[in-house]
Amino acid sequence: MKIFVNEKQLELENGITAYEVRDNIKKNADIVILNGFPIEKDYILREGDKLALIKKGEAPTKEELEFLLFSRHTPKVHEKVKKASVGIAGLGGLGSNVAISLARIGIGKLVLVDFDVVEPSNLNRQQYLIKHLGMNKTEAIKETISEINPFIEVETKNEYIKEDNVLQIFKEVDIIVEAFDNAESKAVLVNTVLSKEKNKFVVAASGMAGYFSNNIIKTKKINERFYLIGDETYEAKVGCGLMAPRVAIAANHQANTVLRIIMDEKEV
Prior knowledge:
By secondary structure, this protein is an alpha/beta fold. The protein is built from eight helices and twelve strands. Strand 1 and strand 2 form a beta hairpin. The chain is elongated and about 65 Å long.
């Protein structure tokens, strides 16, 4: 009889129970989940059942986590994702959300760049907690990523990106996510990278303020190496602030565009 334990297929004898599998494989598991539901009494397993054995607070090994991602993403996807290197310029509402999404898919390497610290006003839309107040954003988001997937390579740079350092900062990445707050910095990064680099992709964003329709946030392919996400209309200003739902929608457009580029799906 074939069943799955923590997403790994095993051949077991007919009539075996969930608790017997737990006792043989992970006796210290606090929680047994059968086909997506926690159980409080034993069950006889059937062909194709899926068990998850969880010890509260225990981190999986690199091999276990790799297998779980592998099984969820399919081999083709995960093999490419874990080899990819992505830079994120700015770790505010866009960048912090992009970083978390890419961490959750098991990206190989992240280069995170920001010169700012976490302030109370950031908590309305950025991936930070009260315990992070006063910390460099680079270190705060790195800490969060380590609690999601400690095996991702994370390089942090507390720098202000300018025309004369942007190429050096991102020299080792394949794709750059532009996630700045101001138009001038956006233009400097996009124009410098696209004019002086021949192989790097840039995924930028513009227009995600307020609580306007979800559906006017679009992903556009501007040229072969430049993608722009947003509604291109509603910028942050007095009376039209940045709020978590719409910012996160734009950020995940960016993250998914990064994934599509990695997977050689370069059309929007």
